[in-house]
Design goal:
- With 155 residues, the protein is α+β, with helices and mostly antiparallel strands.
- It folds into 2 domains: 1-37, no CATH class; 41-154, Roll (Nuclear Transport Factor 2, Chain: A).
- It is 40% helix and 28% strand.
- A 4-stranded antiparallel beta sheet has the order 1-2-3-4.
- Helix 3 packs across helix 5.
- The longest helix is centred in the first third of the chain and has 20 residues, at 13-32.
- It is elongated, with a radius of gyration of 26 Å.
Amino acid sequence: MARDARGRQHVPALVRMRSALRYVIVLALACCAGVALPQDPAATTAQRVAREWLALTDAGNAAASWDAAARQFRNAIARDGWAEALKQWREPLGALTRRSVLSTSFTTSFPGAPDSNYAIVLFRSAFANKADAVETVTLERESDDAWRVVGYFIR
């Protein structure tokens, strides 16, 4: 390697560029590694079912959301009771302006409920009258293998 007037070694520019390029490629690959991972099909299905059910509640359609809910949900609250609860808690929030999935998790036990297959989908949501909310939709995989909503909570 060449040395300058002070006796220091000079690394040729081409070697420095190759080194920098390798660093940039490794950094780019590390940053993007998680982006291309496929999502669990069960999570995708649970999220889709939760969104479809939430669309009914967003429209204020208590009867349809009650009909689409799991047997456990329908046994816990009468259709008229659900309509009143939806009117009391959801209607004041106003129109939905944004909703995105925060997380999806699965469990086989849930406090106060029989053992089964449950999915808990959390959404970060914004409404006309509440800028930042977290909606929790709990679903159960019923005996026909379909996911249906057993619980809904807005915080």
